[in-house]
Design brief:
The chain is of the alpha+beta class and 365 residues long. 42% of the residues lie in helices and 20% in strands. The protein has two domains: 240 residues, Serine Threonine Protein Phosphatase 5, Tetratricopeptide repeat (Alpha Horseshoe); 107 residues, Immunoglobulin-like. The radius of gyration is 24 Å and the shape is globular.
């Protein structure tokens, strides 16, 4: 069956949603000119990406609201609970980033409030870039907040390499200033927060792997929340077969195993279908082993070359001579961040970061 085309992500900010924003702003502030807002928000809309559309909403609010920053924040705060889509709410924080740089205290309070409805993770970075120390001082207090969205913001907003945003070069070079936040959140009860901490640490491993390895090696191993964060934080290093990362997870760098089979089926698929990946692994040697099993799919690029993407599969223990069969389905379909191209796709079986077997399948045009 042919894959149904998915609406572009930018359509989160389509004409209907812009009308919704105009309507709820009018409800919060009776003199609001809905037609003027729509005019500004719709300018060149078809040619704008999702982040550009999000920013243009903030610009449109500024063009139509009274003009006093504090009054506009009051109005936006009143309408915030009525926005019908979380990502759309990010426009509220973007307003703060664009027009609140000279109102630090008010802007921090606004971002603290707005992040509950979408996220202030992109907006806070503008304040970090302008005054890192002062902004991090505020974010450290957020790590103690009772609201999980605020606690997540304290970590997510200062990630050195946050997707869809600019890098914080100072933190790429030296991540030490954010460690009080990550230390506070390392056993947070919220999975939403723990995912951010893990992703933050994983970001840091791309530039300062030794820094992360030294820190997490001292973290307690008897707390399930902390151990989950460490496992996820080291995933990039584990995929590379980093011996120190594997050791922290209790994994020997070299797996003593026999690959009895590694198969991909069917051999030929169409876009939108699944490829089935199976492996039969038998433990050799004389000791119990912990294995980290992943697979790398070498996606064909538009020009015909390939680029690998590593996916997590399974962590397990095997006794000497024990055998395990694994299977997983991989959907080959287009989505907002990946377009598939026809051709022969290689798949590698990785155990403890080492290629143990390889297979192929063909994606038809």
């Amino acid at each position: 069956m042919a894959q149904e085309p998915q609406p572009a992500l930018k359509e989160i900010f389509n004409r209907d949603r812009l009308r919704h924003l105009a309507s709820i702003t009018k409800a919060a502030y009776a003199p609001f000119d809905e037609a003027a807002f729509m005019h500004h928000a719709m300018l060149g809309l078809d040619d704008l990406g999702i982040m550009q559309r999000m920013r243009q909403v903030a610009v449109a609010w500024h063009a139509v609201l009274p003009g006093d920053y504090n009054r506009n924040i009051e109005i936006l705060s009143a309408l915030a609970p009525h926005i019908n889509h979380g990502f759309t709410s990010i426009s509220l924080a973007e307003y703060v980033a664009l027009y609140g740089q000279d109102h630090f205290e008010q802007s921090m309070q606004a971002l603290h409030f707005f992040t509950r409805f979408g996220s202030s993770e992109f907006a806070i970075r503008h304040f970090l870039a302008k005054d890192m120390s002062r902004t991090l001082d505020v974010m450290q207090t957020w790590a103690f907040d009772e609201n999980e969205h605020v606690r997540r913001l304290s970590s997510e907003g200062c990630r050195p390499r946050l997707p869809w945003s600019f890098q914080l070069k100072a933190l790429v070079d030296d991540p030490a200033p954010v460690m009080p936040i990550l230390e506070k959140l390392k056993n947070d009860p919220s999975l939403y927060v723990r995912k951010s901490v893990a992703n933050h640490l994983n970001d840091i491993t791309k530039d300062n792997p030794a820094f992360v390895l030294q820190k997490v090696a001292t973290w307690p191993t008897d707390n399930q929340h902390t151990t989950w964060i460490v496992r996820q934080a080291l995933r990039t290093l584990v995929k590379k077969g980093d011996n120190s990362a594997l050791a922290i997870l209790g994994v020997k760098s070299k797996a003593d195993v026999v690959i009895e089979s590694f198969q991909l089926s069917p051999d030929n698929i169409s876009l939108g279908e699944n490829v089935r990946i199976t492996a039969a692994i038998k433990a050799a040697g004389t000791e119990r082993q912990k294995l980290v099993v992943d697979y790398a799919l070498h996606y064909v690029k538009k020009a015909g070359s390939t680029a690998p993407k590593v996916f997590k599969w399974k962590e397990l223990h095997l006794e000497p001579g024990e055998r395990v069969e694994l299977g997983i389905n991989r959907a080959i379909k287009d989505f907002t961040t990946r377009t598939h191209y026809p051709g022969r796709h290689q798949v590698d079986l990785l155990i403890n970061g080492e290629i143990k077997a390889q297979g192929e399948f063909t994606l038809s045009s």
